[in-house]
Design goal:
Helices cover about 35% and strands about 20% of the residues. By secondary structure, the protein is α/β, with parallel strands linked by helices. The strands form three sheets. The chain has a seven-stranded parallel β-sheet, with helices on both faces. Strands 4, 5, 6, 9, 10 and 11 form a six-stranded antiparallel β-sheet that branches. A two-stranded antiparallel sheet has the order 7-8. A hairpin with a 5-residue loop joins β9 and β10. The longest helix has 22 residues. The N terminus and C terminus are likely disordered.
């Protein structure tokens, strides 16, 4: 048993589920005003909440869960800290419950999301300006094409990999193969329609991508699907490329990144931001970006950029085709699918604005006048926060070798003009060698120890921290526990955080 430290403080992993009357009364005080109405709009708890779905992020704890912990561990106007603030859900929970929040993170996307999530915004004005921008850009939209001899607007265009058979060298269309399997999935074994021999998908190299299906807008809420046999002819004036975007386009994403190696991005010829996009979507995104940056109202511009960075993620070649709808990239990784859905950027952006309209409408009703301070810095150095000034810490730190935030957030951060440096990121590299900047378990443990020491310094004596953590590696768990102990924390409780809806990875690794 380790010797107790004089300044030792308590930590709770995941937390209990609180059902005391005091919690229920507090919760109703904050949310009761329009709860029934908001539930109809999808503003309820957990992952279906409008508070949760404003923007994609590799990991996110539902706001409802954080609210419960805050109400159970703090009083109004007390100070809460999240030094790994990510999407800013802790700050939002503090804003909703009348607590002050101190948020920090090394990622520019984290600060971008957190700042937008906690700040008032005129949702009516936001929607009005967005509508003006979309209407202006529609006149030169590249998403119109001749379908069956008639000009139609395209909602999405599915591009399929064309493989070369390893036996007869004839072409194999991933689309034709996918149509023969449930849910349009490309199987691991692909039979060549020419020589009838079986190819392992992992052995096949795509020689090109070819348009195979168009989702054509029929009405405002309905689509018509049209299979494509010949190259489609775009009918509207194409947007011309602008040299002022060369710096953004050339933001490097090189082979000395973990996710470049893990995702085999060399096979996709990815070396910079521009390589993540088709010509059509790149031109549409640059035109949209240019319009947004000309908006004089800085708060509206920031909210438009919140919609834009999410649109920029959905506008990549990583957007997977889903025969049931809901096309989206796979979060937490950089995966290029065999069936890529080139989404209509303007339509995606407009849909996101509709989401933000509901979000800010609700936030403006519920949020308190509590203070939220943000700083972009490492958790190893919380210099802007005074010693023993924090009442409670709720945080979701890096999970070791599971998720590489700097890599996964690269798309949005390149557009924001400030990608996160991987030097200070607390991760464990499995693919990137230490001689090229990779980190081992000791590097991760040292960074986490320094971070927890800083948290101990700013936390009041007898203060409490709730730590959300997930890893399938016993070694990573032990490193984390050792870091906590070294920093002066004592584990008082450990339990399971019920996220209700798990990701695919969550279901796969929950054991």
């Amino acid at each position: 048993m380790k010797k107790q430290k004089l300044n030792q403080k308590t930590i709770t992993f995941f937390d209990k589920i609180y059902t005391q009357n005091s919690y229920l009364e507090s919760y109703q005080t904050v949310f009761n005003t329009q709860m029934k109405y908001d539930l109809k709009l999808g503003l309820g708890s957990s992952k279906g909440s409008i508070f949760y779905n404003t923007h994609s992020y590799p990991t996110k704890v539902p706001v409802d869960n954080i609210v419960k912990r805050i109400l159970s561990n703090t009083k109004q106007n007390q100070n809460i800290l999240d030094p790994f603030c990510g999407s800013g859900m802790t700050g939002l929970a503090a804003k909703l419950t009348g607590r002050n929040a101190y948020l920090s993170d090394i990622g520019s996307l984290a600060i971008h999301l957190s700042a937008n999530h906690v700040a008032f915004c005129d949702h009516v004005k936001l929607k009005h300006i967005s509508d003006i921008i979309i209407e202006k850009l529609k006149h030169k939209s590249p998403y119109f094409a001749k379908i069956d001899g008639t000009e139609r607007e395209i909602s999405y265009l599915v591009f399929a990999d064309i493989f070369s058979c390893e036996f007869c060298s004839k072409q194999i269309s991933a689309w034709e193969v996918a149509k023969q399997s449930p849910n349009y999935k490309v199987p691991s074994i692909i039979k060549c329609p020419n020589c009838n021999r079986s190819n392992r998908k992992s052995n096949l190299k795509a020689v090109e991508k070819r348009a195979s299906l168009a989702g054509v807008i029929k009405t405002s809420s309905r689509l018509e699907l049209k299979e494509i046999e010949n190259p489609i002819e775009r009918t509207r004036t194409k947007i011309s490329s602008c040299n002022s975007f060369n710096q953004i386009a050339n933001t490097p994403f090189d082979a000395n990144r973990e996710m470049h190696i893990r995702s085999a991005l060399h096979l996709q010829n990815v070396t910079k931001l521009r390589d993540f996009y088709s010509d059509t979507n790149w031109l549409a995104l640059t035109s949209l970006y240019q319009e947004i940056t000309q908006i004089a109202d800085q708060r509206i511009q920031a909210a438009l950029m919140l919609a834009f960075t999410n649109t920029a993620w959905h506008g990549t070649k990583m957007r997977r085709y889903n025969s049931k709808g809901g096309h989206r990239p796979l979060t937490g990784t950089l995966y290029f699918p065999q069936l890529y859905s080139e989404g209509n950027v303007y339509q995606i952006f407009a849909n996101k604005i509709d989401t933000l309209y509901k979000y800010f409408s609700s936030l403006n009703q519920y949020s308190t006048n509590s203070l939220v301070k943000l700083n972009r810095n490492s958790a190893t150095s919380l210099k802007t926060i005074n010693e023993s000034s924090i009442d409670y810490i709720y945080t979701d730190p890096p999970f070791g070798a599971n998720i590489f935030y700097a890599d996964c957030n690269f798309i949005a951060e390149a557009w924001l003009g400030n990608p996160t440096s991987i030097v200070d990121e607390a991760v464990v590299n499995k693919s990137l060698k230490s001689c090229k900047g990779g980190k081992d378990l000791d590097n991760y443990s040292n960074l986490m120890t320094k971070s927890f020491e800083e948290m101990n310094r700013v936390l009041k004596r007898n203060g409490c921290m709730s730590l959300v953590f997930n890893s399938s590696s016993g070694a990573v768990w032990q490193a984390l526990m050792d870091s906590l102990s070294t920093a002066g924390f004592e584990l008082t409780n450990a339990s399971l955080l019920d996220k209700v809806q798990l990701s695919f990875k969550g279901y796969k690794s929950r054991n």
